[in-house]
Amino acid sequence: MKQFLQMHSDTVFAFLMTGFTFVFGGWDKAFVAFCMFLVLDILTGMIKGASAGEFSSRRMRKGFKTKAGYLIVIIIATTLDRLMPESMPVLRTLCLWFYIFVEGTSVLENLAQMGVPIPKVIVERLAVIKGKSGDEAELDSNGHFKNDSPKK
Length: 152
Prior knowledge:
Layout: H1 2-7, H2 9-24, H3 29-51, H4 57-83, H5 90-113, H6 120-133
Helix pairs in contact: 3-4, 3-5, 4-5, 5-6
């Protein structure tokens, strides 16, 4: 197996990246921004925790689970978009904008809590993104999604 991977590493890499691209719907600007913010949130969270003496592997594991959940939601949105006749990535794009807002806000909060001054225009730009992507869905006391639309 090791010899096979050494001989065909380029092919294996291309195969994996093709699958990754298919599952996540491509490497457009929104997905790249989401990935950057995801990594920056992890890094700034670790730096903030370490510098404050509050680094917690439990908190980090919880964060990784949440980020894995983001990726699963993006896969679901991408799959649902493929079912639509318009073949436009509407749900995927909205999910990416929503998670860019969530992760971007978290990065800025981490930096601000470390004493880094944040330009107001960046916070305002993130608020515009949130307005385009909608609000977070809420759960009722039974763990089911609340439906705000009127029932017929």
